[in-house]
Amino acid sequence: MAGFTTDMTIRGLGRFGVWRYYAAVTPDEAKELEGLGYGSIWLGGSPAAELPVVESLLEATENLVVGTSIVNVWSAPAAEVAESFHRIDKRFPGRFILGIGIGHPEHDNDYRKPYDVLVEYIDVLDKAGVPKQQIALAALGPRVLKLSGDRTAGALPYLTVPQHTREAREILGPDALLVAEHKIVLDTDPATARPTGRDVVKFYLGLRNYVANLRRLGFSDEDLAAPGSDALIDALALHGTAEQIATGLTEHLTAGADTVAIQPLGSDYMGTLRTLAAVLG
């Protein structure tokens, strides 16, 4: 199947990639996604320091970029992650981006001075020779966004809207990498699409870093009260026809994203991406 055509962005990522839990994606999926025209796969779920799966996906593809989104700095020691990075980059030069992040205070027992921990982690990667242009940082608020632009290739915001992308680009400047994740539900009926989105989004409404970011973007306490208002769910989990979803995703590019990491929700992950590929351009 021929892939959609898309202008290539910095680092050869293409304008659209996909976000997938690292333990769920397979080499065959990666090969098909590359054929469909997606330029990158971003692996969520806090993979271990050994960075499992990455090499098998790179081996199955020719030009696809694989990134972690993200390695949790609390659970994956920086020195071990650096060793894994060099192992992978030696085999597949320039095709792996190491995305790192702080995780959630609710889920990490030793959640101390997150900003300082990030700086220390980046310091270790830097001393171990991991190149700045192949590190990216999960960033939502202004301070960590600035850190991502100063010390890494750029930012990997999660659970955001185009307004955040616009504000992030202003902080990062024109040259830093900005990959905006967005959830989608290929369903034109709000009565079924919203519950699919809400089932995923409601988890994040119990995590204060995401709630604080969404509040900065103008969502009210009423919107943010679990399980989330219809307006919030519609913004964070786009639903509709493939064409409508493509239009919504493109708003991130207009706002300044280099790449949109698409996360399909529902039972047919690959089917959604096949359908969407036919209308992306």
TrEMBL record:
Molecular function terms, GO-annotated: oxidoreductase activity, acting on paired donors, with incorporation or reduction of molecular oxygen
Gene Ontology terms: cellular component: cytosol
Domain Luciferase-like stretches: 28-258
Highest rank taxon of the organism: Bacteria
Coiled-coil segments: none
UniProt-listed InterPro entries: Bact_Lucif_Oxidored, Lucif-like_OxRdatse_MSMEG_4141, Luciferase-like_dom, Luciferase-like_sf
NCBIfam families: F420_MSMEG_4141
Name assigned to this protein: Luciferase-like domain-containing protein
